Amino acid sequence: MWINSFDDSYSLTGSLVIGEFLDPKTSSSCTLYHPSTPKYVKDITVLLIRFDEALTNYGCSSYADVIQRNEWLQHNFTTQTTSETTNETNDSLSNLPMVIIFTSMNDGDPGIREKYYGNVDILSKSESKLALIRVSDAKEISYLKPKTSFINFTSDSGPWINLLKSKDWKIWSILFGIFYSSMIILAFSSFILAINQYKFDLTNLRLWLFIAILSYSFILLVIFEYDPWSIRYNYLSELNYEIIVMTAYYILCLCYAIFLFPWIKATRNLTEVVNYNIGFVRKLSRIFQCGTGLAILIKTTSIIFYLLQFSPNGIKISLMILRVIFTILESLFCLIIICTFGTFGVIIFFARIHEQKTRRRRSREHQPVSRKSVRKEIFLSGILTIIIIISLIFVTLQEVIMIYLPITIESFWIIRITNDVSNIFSGLVLIIGLYSNTIGKYSHMMYSGSSDENITTSTFSGDSSNNPNVITSINDDIITTTNVRNKRTTIEILFGRNSLGL
Question: Which residues cross the membrane (predicted)?
Protein backbone atom coordinates (compact mmCIF):
# COMPACT_ATOMS: atom_id res chain seq x y z
CA MET A 1 0.00 0.00 0.00
CA TRP A 2 1.26 3.49 -0.91
CA ILE A 3 1.99 6.27 1.59
CA ASN A 4 2.85 9.19 -0.71
CA SER A 5 1.47 7.87 -4.01
CA PHE A 6 -1.82 6.44 -5.22
CA ASP A 7 -0.81 4.79 -8.50
CA ASP A 8 -2.55 1.40 -8.37
CA SER A 9 -1.02 0.22 -11.64
CA TYR A 10 2.62 0.89 -10.73
CA SER A 11 4.97 -2.01 -11.45
CA LEU A 12 8.73 -2.43 -11.81
CA THR A 13 11.46 -5.03 -11.79
CA GLY A 14 14.94 -4.68 -10.34
CA SER A 15 17.23 -5.14 -7.37
CA LEU A 16 16.16 -5.29 -3.72
CA VAL A 17 18.25 -3.94 -0.85
CA ILE A 18 17.43 -4.11 2.85
CA GLY A 19 18.33 -0.78 4.44
CA GLU A 20 20.81 -0.73 7.30
CA PHE A 21 21.12 1.91 10.02
CA LEU A 22 24.26 3.36 11.56
CA ASP A 23 24.94 2.56 15.18
CA PRO A 24 23.16 5.30 17.20
CA LYS A 25 25.99 5.15 19.76
CA THR A 26 28.54 6.43 17.24
CA SER A 27 26.32 8.55 14.96
CA SER A 28 22.99 10.33 14.86
CA SER A 29 19.95 8.20 15.58
CA CYS A 30 17.75 6.92 12.74
CA THR A 31 20.50 7.41 10.13
CA LEU A 32 20.69 5.05 7.16
CA TYR A 33 23.92 4.10 5.44
CA HIS A 34 24.44 6.46 2.49
CA PRO A 35 23.56 4.92 -0.92
CA SER A 36 27.13 5.52 -2.13
CA THR A 37 28.50 3.16 0.52
CA PRO A 38 30.00 -0.14 -0.68
CA LYS A 39 27.37 -1.93 1.46
CA TYR A 40 24.81 -1.23 -1.27
CA VAL A 41 24.73 -2.47 -4.84
CA LYS A 42 24.54 -0.11 -7.77
CA ASP A 43 21.12 0.89 -9.12
CA ILE A 44 18.90 0.14 -6.14
CA THR A 45 15.31 -0.39 -7.31
CA VAL A 46 13.54 -1.20 -4.03
CA LEU A 47 14.83 -0.34 -0.56
CA LEU A 48 13.18 -2.28 2.27
CA ILE A 49 13.39 -0.55 5.66
CA ARG A 50 12.63 -2.73 8.66
CA PHE A 51 10.85 0.00 10.59
CA ASP A 52 9.97 -2.46 13.35
CA GLU A 53 13.71 -2.72 14.09
CA ALA A 54 14.33 1.00 13.49
CA LEU A 55 11.66 1.88 16.04
CA THR A 56 13.12 -0.24 18.80
CA ASN A 57 16.86 -0.23 18.08
CA TYR A 58 17.84 2.86 16.09
CA GLY A 59 15.92 5.77 17.62
CA CYS A 60 13.34 6.29 14.85
CA SER A 61 9.94 7.57 15.96
CA SER A 62 7.96 7.58 12.70
CA TYR A 63 8.15 7.10 8.95
CA ALA A 64 8.52 10.86 8.60
CA ASP A 65 11.46 10.71 11.01
CA VAL A 66 13.33 8.40 8.64
CA ILE A 67 12.80 10.73 5.67
CA GLN A 68 13.65 13.85 7.67
CA ARG A 69 16.89 12.50 9.18
CA ASN A 70 18.13 11.19 5.82
CA GLU A 71 18.03 14.22 3.54
CA TRP A 72 19.23 12.28 0.52
CA LEU A 73 15.73 10.75 0.41
CA GLN A 74 14.06 14.17 -0.07
CA HIS A 75 13.24 16.28 -3.13
CA ASN A 76 15.10 19.28 -1.75
CA PHE A 77 18.44 17.47 -1.43
CA THR A 78 20.87 19.97 -3.09
CA THR A 79 24.40 19.72 -4.44
CA GLN A 80 27.43 21.58 -3.11
CA THR A 81 29.84 23.82 -5.01
CA THR A 82 32.97 21.65 -4.99
CA SER A 83 33.38 19.17 -7.78
CA GLU A 84 34.19 16.35 -5.36
CA THR A 85 30.97 16.83 -3.39
CA THR A 86 28.95 17.31 -6.57
CA ASN A 87 30.15 14.02 -7.99
CA GLU A 88 29.34 12.26 -4.71
CA THR A 89 25.86 13.74 -4.66
CA ASN A 90 25.18 12.79 -8.26
CA ASP A 91 26.26 9.24 -7.48
CA SER A 92 23.89 9.10 -4.52
CA LEU A 93 20.97 10.44 -6.55
CA SER A 94 21.63 7.98 -9.34
CA ASN A 95 21.55 5.20 -6.76
CA LEU A 96 18.38 6.48 -5.11
CA PRO A 97 15.78 3.69 -4.88
CA MET A 98 12.61 4.10 -6.91
CA VAL A 99 10.52 2.59 -4.11
CA ILE A 100 11.06 2.53 -0.35
CA ILE A 101 9.03 -0.04 1.55
CA PHE A 102 8.44 0.39 5.30
CA THR A 103 7.17 -2.37 7.52
CA SER A 104 3.73 -1.54 8.89
CA MET A 105 3.53 -0.99 12.64
CA ASN A 106 -0.19 -1.49 13.22
CA ASP A 107 0.22 -5.25 13.85
CA GLY A 108 -2.25 -6.02 11.10
CA ASP A 109 -3.15 -5.06 7.56
CA PRO A 110 -1.08 -1.98 6.61
CA GLY A 111 -2.64 1.36 5.84
CA ILE A 112 -4.38 2.63 9.01
CA ARG A 113 -3.30 3.33 12.59
CA GLU A 114 0.30 3.71 11.43
CA LYS A 115 3.15 5.65 13.02
CA TYR A 116 2.39 8.92 11.24
CA TYR A 117 3.55 11.02 14.18
CA GLY A 118 5.76 14.03 13.62
CA ASN A 119 5.73 16.20 10.51
CA VAL A 120 3.56 14.16 8.15
CA ASP A 121 4.22 16.61 5.28
CA ILE A 122 7.80 15.32 5.18
CA LEU A 123 6.51 12.12 3.57
CA SER A 124 5.50 14.06 0.47
CA LYS A 125 9.09 15.30 0.07
CA SER A 126 10.45 11.83 -0.53
CA GLU A 127 12.08 11.42 -3.93
CA SER A 128 11.11 7.74 -3.89
CA LYS A 129 7.65 6.26 -3.79
CA LEU A 130 6.79 5.06 -0.27
CA ALA A 131 4.88 1.86 0.39
CA LEU A 132 3.93 -0.35 3.34
CA ILE A 133 4.22 -4.07 3.92
CA ARG A 134 3.33 -6.46 6.74
CA VAL A 135 6.06 -7.23 9.26
CA SER A 136 5.59 -10.95 8.62
CA ASP A 137 6.11 -10.43 4.88
CA ALA A 138 9.20 -8.31 5.52
CA LYS A 139 10.67 -11.08 7.66
CA GLU A 140 10.16 -13.59 4.86
CA ILE A 141 11.91 -11.24 2.43
CA SER A 142 14.80 -10.89 4.89
CA TYR A 143 15.18 -14.67 4.99
CA LEU A 144 15.16 -14.86 1.18
CA LYS A 145 17.56 -11.93 0.67
CA PRO A 146 20.81 -13.95 0.88
CA LYS A 147 19.50 -16.17 -1.93
CA THR A 148 18.08 -13.54 -4.28
CA SER A 149 18.19 -9.78 -4.87
CA PHE A 150 16.02 -9.52 -7.97
CA ILE A 151 12.30 -8.78 -7.49
CA ASN A 152 9.14 -7.86 -9.36
CA PHE A 153 7.29 -5.09 -7.50
CA THR A 154 3.56 -4.52 -8.16
CA SER A 155 1.49 -2.02 -6.19
CA ASP A 156 -2.18 -1.96 -5.23
CA SER A 157 -4.46 0.47 -3.42
CA GLY A 158 -4.32 -1.54 -0.21
CA PRO A 159 -6.85 -3.71 1.64
CA TRP A 160 -8.61 -0.80 3.33
CA ILE A 161 -9.37 1.15 0.18
CA ASN A 162 -10.54 -2.08 -1.41
CA LEU A 163 -12.78 -2.63 1.61
CA LEU A 164 -14.50 0.74 1.21
CA LYS A 165 -15.08 -0.04 -2.47
CA SER A 166 -16.40 -3.54 -1.79
CA LYS A 167 -20.01 -4.59 -2.30
CA ASP A 168 -20.23 -5.98 1.25
CA TRP A 169 -19.38 -2.63 2.80
CA LYS A 170 -21.78 -0.73 0.56
CA ILE A 171 -24.64 -3.04 1.57
CA TRP A 172 -23.72 -2.81 5.25
CA SER A 173 -23.43 0.99 5.18
CA ILE A 174 -26.82 1.36 3.51
CA LEU A 175 -28.51 -1.10 5.87
CA PHE A 176 -27.24 0.37 9.11
CA GLY A 177 -27.48 3.88 7.77
CA ILE A 178 -31.21 3.20 7.60
CA PHE A 179 -31.20 1.76 11.14
CA TYR A 180 -29.36 4.75 12.61
CA SER A 181 -31.63 7.14 10.73
CA SER A 182 -34.70 5.32 12.05
CA MET A 183 -33.36 5.64 15.58
CA ILE A 184 -32.89 9.37 15.09
CA ILE A 185 -36.39 9.80 13.67
CA LEU A 186 -37.96 7.78 16.50
CA ALA A 187 -36.13 9.66 19.25
CA PHE A 188 -36.79 13.05 17.67
CA SER A 189 -40.49 12.40 17.07
CA SER A 190 -40.91 11.13 20.63
CA PHE A 191 -39.20 14.22 21.98
CA ILE A 192 -41.33 16.60 19.87
CA LEU A 193 -44.54 14.80 20.84
CA ALA A 194 -43.69 15.04 24.53
CA ILE A 195 -42.86 18.74 24.15
CA ASN A 196 -46.11 19.50 22.32
CA GLN A 197 -48.24 17.76 24.91
CA TYR A 198 -46.48 18.66 28.15
CA LYS A 199 -44.02 21.47 27.28
CA PHE A 200 -40.32 21.41 28.07
CA ASP A 201 -39.43 20.93 31.72
CA LEU A 202 -35.73 21.12 32.60
CA THR A 203 -36.30 18.74 35.52
CA ASN A 204 -37.85 16.08 33.31
CA LEU A 205 -35.23 13.33 32.86
CA ARG A 206 -37.32 11.62 30.22
CA LEU A 207 -36.90 14.53 27.82
CA TRP A 208 -33.15 14.72 28.47
CA LEU A 209 -32.81 11.01 27.78
CA PHE A 210 -34.58 11.45 24.45
CA ILE A 211 -32.11 14.23 23.62
CA ALA A 212 -29.18 11.98 24.61
CA ILE A 213 -30.41 9.09 22.44
CA LEU A 214 -30.91 11.50 19.56
CA SER A 215 -27.41 12.96 20.01
CA TYR A 216 -25.44 9.73 20.17
CA SER A 217 -27.40 8.21 17.27
CA PHE A 218 -26.71 11.27 15.11
CA ILE A 219 -22.98 11.23 15.94
CA LEU A 220 -22.67 7.54 15.14
CA LEU A 221 -24.57 7.93 11.87
CA VAL A 222 -22.32 10.77 10.69
CA ILE A 223 -19.05 9.05 11.60
CA PHE A 224 -20.36 5.73 10.23
CA GLU A 225 -20.93 7.20 6.78
CA TYR A 226 -18.00 9.64 6.81
CA ASP A 227 -15.13 7.50 8.08
CA PRO A 228 -16.09 4.11 9.58
CA TRP A 229 -12.76 3.29 11.30
CA SER A 230 -10.41 6.18 10.62
CA ILE A 231 -9.63 4.53 7.29
CA ARG A 232 -9.69 7.74 5.30
CA TYR A 233 -6.72 9.24 7.15
CA ASN A 234 -6.75 12.44 5.09
CA TYR A 235 -10.32 13.10 6.25
CA LEU A 236 -9.99 12.55 9.97
CA SER A 237 -6.99 11.88 12.22
CA GLU A 238 -6.99 8.88 14.50
CA LEU A 239 -7.25 11.01 17.65
CA ASN A 240 -10.14 13.10 16.32
CA TYR A 241 -11.93 9.97 15.21
CA GLU A 242 -11.60 8.36 18.63
CA ILE A 243 -12.76 11.53 20.41
CA ILE A 244 -15.92 11.65 18.31
CA VAL A 245 -16.70 7.95 18.66
CA MET A 246 -16.01 7.86 22.40
CA THR A 247 -18.20 10.94 22.90
CA ALA A 248 -21.12 9.00 21.43
CA TYR A 249 -20.24 5.95 23.57
CA TYR A 250 -20.02 8.14 26.68
CA ILE A 251 -23.46 9.64 26.01
CA LEU A 252 -24.93 6.17 25.56
CA CYS A 253 -23.47 4.95 28.86
CA LEU A 254 -24.72 8.09 30.61
CA CYS A 255 -28.22 7.20 29.43
CA TYR A 256 -28.02 3.95 31.39
CA ALA A 257 -26.70 5.72 34.48
CA ILE A 258 -29.29 8.52 34.38
CA PHE A 259 -32.07 6.01 33.76
CA LEU A 260 -31.22 4.47 37.15
CA PHE A 261 -32.42 7.49 39.13
CA PRO A 262 -36.09 7.21 38.08
CA TRP A 263 -35.75 3.42 38.16
CA ILE A 264 -34.74 3.52 41.82
CA LYS A 265 -37.47 6.04 42.60
CA ALA A 266 -40.10 3.86 40.91
CA THR A 267 -39.01 0.84 42.94
CA ARG A 268 -39.18 2.80 46.17
CA ASN A 269 -42.66 4.08 45.32
CA LEU A 270 -43.88 0.59 44.46
CA THR A 271 -42.74 -0.81 47.80
CA GLU A 272 -44.59 2.01 49.53
CA VAL A 273 -47.74 1.19 47.56
CA VAL A 274 -47.72 -2.52 48.39
CA ASN A 275 -46.20 -2.04 51.87
CA TYR A 276 -43.12 -4.20 51.20
CA ASN A 277 -39.90 -3.56 53.21
CA ILE A 278 -40.33 0.20 52.92
CA GLY A 279 -37.58 1.20 55.37
CA PHE A 280 -35.00 -1.20 53.92
CA VAL A 281 -35.67 -0.12 50.33
CA ARG A 282 -35.38 3.56 51.25
CA LYS A 283 -31.94 3.01 52.80
CA LEU A 284 -30.87 0.86 49.88
CA SER A 285 -32.00 3.47 47.36
CA ARG A 286 -29.82 6.14 48.99
CA ILE A 287 -26.76 3.86 48.80
CA PHE A 288 -27.28 2.96 45.15
CA GLN A 289 -27.97 6.55 44.14
CA CYS A 290 -24.52 7.43 45.47
CA GLY A 291 -23.15 4.39 43.65
CA THR A 292 -24.66 5.64 40.41
CA GLY A 293 -22.89 8.97 40.82
CA LEU A 294 -19.64 7.08 41.41
CA ALA A 295 -20.26 5.03 38.26
CA ILE A 296 -20.55 8.21 36.19
CA LEU A 297 -17.21 9.40 37.58
CA ILE A 298 -15.61 6.03 36.77
CA LYS A 299 -16.93 6.15 33.22
CA THR A 300 -15.51 9.65 32.71
CA THR A 301 -12.10 8.50 33.96
CA SER A 302 -12.09 5.41 31.73
CA ILE A 303 -12.78 7.51 28.63
CA ILE A 304 -9.82 9.76 29.49
CA PHE A 305 -7.47 6.78 29.85
CA TYR A 306 -8.72 5.36 26.57
CA LEU A 307 -8.00 8.56 24.65
CA LEU A 308 -4.51 8.87 26.17
CA GLN A 309 -3.28 5.97 24.04
CA PHE A 310 -3.94 8.06 20.91
CA SER A 311 -2.17 11.18 22.13
CA PRO A 312 0.27 12.42 19.45
CA ASN A 313 2.66 13.74 22.10
CA GLY A 314 3.39 10.29 23.46
CA ILE A 315 2.26 9.57 27.02
CA LYS A 316 4.90 8.07 29.31
CA ILE A 317 2.62 5.11 30.04
CA SER A 318 2.76 1.89 28.08
CA LEU A 319 -0.10 1.10 25.76
CA MET A 320 -0.88 -2.14 27.56
CA ILE A 321 -1.16 -0.40 30.95
CA LEU A 322 -3.60 2.14 29.50
CA ARG A 323 -5.68 -0.67 28.04
CA VAL A 324 -5.72 -2.62 31.30
CA ILE A 325 -6.79 0.47 33.26
CA PHE A 326 -9.53 1.15 30.72
CA THR A 327 -10.74 -2.46 30.95
CA ILE A 328 -10.85 -2.38 34.76
CA LEU A 329 -12.74 0.92 34.87
CA GLU A 330 -15.21 -0.21 32.22
CA SER A 331 -15.82 -3.42 34.17
CA LEU A 332 -16.42 -1.47 37.39
CA PHE A 333 -18.90 0.85 35.70
CA CYS A 334 -20.76 -2.05 34.12
CA LEU A 335 -20.80 -3.97 37.42
CA ILE A 336 -22.24 -1.03 39.40
CA ILE A 337 -24.96 -0.29 36.85
CA ILE A 338 -25.90 -3.95 36.42
CA CYS A 339 -26.03 -4.55 40.17
CA THR A 340 -28.28 -1.52 40.61
CA PHE A 341 -30.69 -2.49 37.84
CA GLY A 342 -30.65 -6.10 39.00
CA THR A 343 -31.12 -5.32 42.70
CA PHE A 344 -34.09 -3.03 42.21
CA GLY A 345 -35.49 -5.28 39.49
CA VAL A 346 -35.49 -8.14 42.01
CA ILE A 347 -37.14 -5.85 44.57
CA ILE A 348 -39.88 -5.03 42.04
CA PHE A 349 -40.32 -8.75 41.39
CA PHE A 350 -40.71 -9.68 45.06
CA ALA A 351 -42.86 -6.62 45.74
CA ARG A 352 -45.20 -7.83 43.02
CA ILE A 353 -45.18 -11.34 44.50
CA HIS A 354 -46.04 -9.79 47.86
CA GLU A 355 -48.87 -7.84 46.22
CA GLN A 356 -50.18 -11.01 44.58
CA LYS A 357 -50.21 -12.89 47.90
CA THR A 358 -51.99 -9.97 49.56
CA ARG A 359 -54.65 -10.01 46.86
CA ARG A 360 -55.22 -13.74 47.27
CA ARG A 361 -55.53 -13.43 51.04
CA ARG A 362 -58.02 -10.58 50.73
CA SER A 363 -59.95 -12.50 48.11
CA ARG A 364 -60.32 -15.40 50.53
CA GLU A 365 -61.45 -12.93 53.19
CA HIS A 366 -64.05 -11.55 50.74
CA GLN A 367 -62.44 -8.11 50.71
CA PRO A 368 -62.68 -5.96 47.53
CA VAL A 369 -59.73 -6.67 45.22
CA SER A 370 -58.78 -5.20 41.83
CA ARG A 371 -59.16 -7.57 38.88
CA LYS A 372 -55.97 -6.52 37.16
CA SER A 373 -53.37 -9.23 36.55
CA VAL A 374 -50.23 -9.07 38.68
CA ARG A 375 -48.61 -12.02 36.89
CA LYS A 376 -48.34 -10.05 33.67
CA GLU A 377 -46.76 -7.13 35.52
CA ILE A 378 -44.24 -9.48 37.18
CA PHE A 379 -43.32 -10.99 33.81
CA LEU A 380 -42.90 -7.68 32.00
CA SER A 381 -40.91 -6.09 34.83
CA GLY A 382 -38.52 -9.04 34.69
CA ILE A 383 -38.18 -8.77 30.90
CA LEU A 384 -37.42 -5.05 31.15
CA THR A 385 -34.71 -5.63 33.75
CA ILE A 386 -33.13 -8.45 31.77
CA ILE A 387 -32.96 -6.65 28.42
CA ILE A 388 -31.48 -3.54 30.05
CA ILE A 389 -28.74 -5.63 31.67
CA ILE A 390 -28.05 -7.61 28.48
CA SER A 391 -27.82 -4.47 26.35
CA LEU A 392 -25.36 -2.81 28.76
CA ILE A 393 -23.17 -5.94 28.90
CA PHE A 394 -23.22 -6.11 25.10
CA VAL A 395 -22.17 -2.47 24.70
CA THR A 396 -19.39 -2.67 27.30
CA LEU A 397 -18.04 -6.02 26.15
CA GLN A 398 -17.68 -5.01 22.50
CA GLU A 399 -15.92 -1.78 23.49
CA VAL A 400 -13.40 -3.61 25.69
CA ILE A 401 -12.73 -6.40 23.19
CA MET A 402 -12.17 -3.88 20.40
CA ILE A 403 -8.93 -2.49 21.85
CA TYR A 404 -7.27 -5.93 21.96
CA LEU A 405 -8.04 -6.96 18.38
CA PRO A 406 -5.37 -6.62 15.68
CA ILE A 407 -5.95 -4.07 12.95
CA THR A 408 -7.08 -6.38 10.18
CA ILE A 409 -10.00 -6.60 7.78
CA GLU A 410 -11.43 -9.46 9.86
CA SER A 411 -11.21 -7.35 13.03
CA PHE A 412 -12.89 -4.47 11.23
CA TRP A 413 -15.92 -6.59 10.47
CA ILE A 414 -16.04 -8.04 13.99
CA ILE A 415 -15.93 -4.55 15.50
CA ARG A 416 -18.32 -3.09 12.93
CA ILE A 417 -20.95 -5.80 13.42
CA THR A 418 -20.83 -5.88 17.23
CA ASN A 419 -20.62 -2.09 17.50
CA ASP A 420 -23.51 -1.31 15.17
CA VAL A 421 -25.76 -4.07 16.50
CA SER A 422 -25.09 -3.13 20.14
CA ASN A 423 -25.70 0.57 19.47
CA ILE A 424 -29.02 -0.08 17.73
CA PHE A 425 -30.09 -2.63 20.33
CA SER A 426 -29.22 -0.33 23.24
CA GLY A 427 -31.05 2.59 21.66
CA LEU A 428 -34.16 0.47 21.16
CA VAL A 429 -34.02 -0.78 24.75
CA LEU A 430 -33.80 2.77 26.08
CA ILE A 431 -36.64 3.94 23.85
CA ILE A 432 -38.73 0.95 24.95
CA GLY A 433 -38.13 1.97 28.53
CA LEU A 434 -39.13 5.56 27.79
CA TYR A 435 -41.77 5.40 25.10
CA SER A 436 -43.58 2.18 24.34
CA ASN A 437 -47.16 0.96 24.60
CA THR A 438 -45.86 -2.38 25.85
CA ILE A 439 -44.00 -0.75 28.70
CA GLY A 440 -46.99 1.54 29.30
CA LYS A 441 -49.02 -1.61 30.03
CA TYR A 442 -46.14 -3.18 31.93
CA SER A 443 -47.42 -2.11 35.35
CA HIS A 444 -50.54 -0.25 36.49
CA MET A 445 -49.63 0.47 40.08
CA MET A 446 -50.72 3.14 42.54
CA TYR A 447 -48.21 5.88 43.20
CA SER A 448 -47.72 7.29 46.65
CA GLY A 449 -45.37 10.03 45.44
CA SER A 450 -44.02 11.12 48.80
CA SER A 451 -44.66 10.65 52.48
CA ASP A 452 -47.37 13.29 52.49
CA GLU A 453 -49.44 11.29 49.97
CA ASN A 454 -50.29 8.30 52.13
CA ILE A 455 -52.06 6.10 49.63
CA THR A 456 -50.75 2.65 50.42
CA THR A 457 -52.72 0.15 48.35
CA SER A 458 -54.50 -0.16 45.08
CA THR A 459 -57.86 -1.90 45.34
CA PHE A 460 -61.30 -0.70 44.36
CA SER A 461 -64.37 -1.06 46.52
CA GLY A 462 -67.55 -2.27 44.96
CA ASP A 463 -69.21 1.15 45.30
CA SER A 464 -66.32 3.03 43.81
CA SER A 465 -65.46 0.78 40.88
CA ASN A 466 -67.24 3.10 38.46
CA ASN A 467 -65.38 6.19 39.69
CA PRO A 468 -61.70 6.24 38.63
CA ASN A 469 -60.94 9.05 41.06
CA VAL A 470 -62.12 7.11 44.11
CA ILE A 471 -59.71 4.53 45.45
CA THR A 472 -60.12 2.34 48.49
CA SER A 473 -57.06 2.15 50.75
CA ILE A 474 -56.99 -1.17 52.54
CA ASN A 475 -54.67 -2.15 55.37
CA ASP A 476 -54.96 -5.43 57.24
CA ASP A 477 -58.04 -4.39 59.18
CA ILE A 478 -58.96 -0.87 57.94
CA ILE A 479 -60.90 0.06 54.81
CA THR A 480 -61.24 3.72 53.87
CA THR A 481 -62.31 5.51 50.71
CA THR A 482 -60.33 8.53 49.52
CA ASN A 483 -60.36 10.84 46.50
CA VAL A 484 -56.89 10.73 44.93
CA ARG A 485 -55.30 11.03 41.51
CA ASN A 486 -55.70 8.33 38.87
CA LYS A 487 -53.63 5.18 38.66
CA ARG A 488 -50.16 5.67 37.27
CA THR A 489 -48.41 3.46 34.82
CA THR A 490 -44.80 2.44 35.21
CA ILE A 491 -43.58 5.15 32.82
CA GLU A 492 -45.45 7.78 34.84
CA ILE A 493 -43.89 6.48 38.03
CA LEU A 494 -40.43 6.50 36.44
CA PHE A 495 -40.61 9.98 34.97
CA GLY A 496 -43.61 11.74 36.49
CA ARG A 497 -47.11 12.26 35.14
CA ASN A 498 -46.22 15.39 33.17
CA SER A 499 -43.46 13.57 31.28
CA LEU A 500 -45.75 10.97 29.71
CA GLY A 501 -45.99 12.02 26.10
CA LEU A 502 -47.86 8.97 24.86
Answer: 171-195, 207-224, 244-266, 287-308, 320-353, 378-407, 413-436
